[in-house]
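Aim 2 progress update. The chain analyzed this quarter is reproduced below.
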Amino acid sequence: MLGPLTAAWRFRHFITSSVRSEFASRFARSRLGGLWMILNPLAQAITLAFILSTVLVAKLPGIENPYAFALYLMAGTLGWSLFQEIVIRCLSVFIDGANLLKKLVFPRICLPLVVVGVALVGNLLLGAAVLLVFLVLGHVPGPQALWLPLLVLLTTALALGFGLILGVLNVFLRDIGQVVPIVLQFGFWLTPIIYLPEMVPEPYRGWLSMNPMFPVVAAYQRVLVYGAAPDWQALAWVGALAVVLLGLALALFRRASAEMVDLL
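Predicted structure tokens:
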């Protein structure tokens, strides 16, 4: 089980150089460079925030800032965008890297780890932009925001567990690559990012507790908007799920690794 992780550690310089190379190739001849990674999710969040705060005049209980709903939305988007990018990129990482896998000798587990590295750097840039917008809107996150790195780690582990399993299965059954983006679209709207959990009708509110991203997104909103500590009791089962998924993902990857290259 630890074999792929040990191999990845030996090739850590390959992983970091691959992350740098991807950024360099992605933004070659671009004057804004890495800013393009944050402009799209940030523009969507600001647009929705403007509609909610100004057009619909939505209020957030307990927060006096007139743009409180905008803050709530952007905090939730920060967590969701990291999860979504890792899952989507891992979904096709082995298919996209087929030529690389056949031409070079390196641990195959490095490819999803490169995806994680790129996603984390992009999320760091997005987080900096979100905090800047918070300051412009007159909101300064409190000391509870120091829990943010731990939430990022939890989100990354959960996304990598899902993404690696789906990425391996997608090599053998390509329909998965078509279904997962649709499921993630439903997942976005079934996670309280642009609405409050209290807005969900009581008969359906129990379904929220089955969504692992619900307590994660809620934790981002608590530490960044409400200035409260994460609800660790709600996050406990998510952490346990992330560990189980990562274990299953590594076992599945190790078992199917040789066959994947033949199919690719």
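Residues 3-11+39-263 form one domain. The CA atoms of residues 61 and 68 lie 9 Å apart. These observations will guide the mutagenesis experiments scheduled for the next reporting period.
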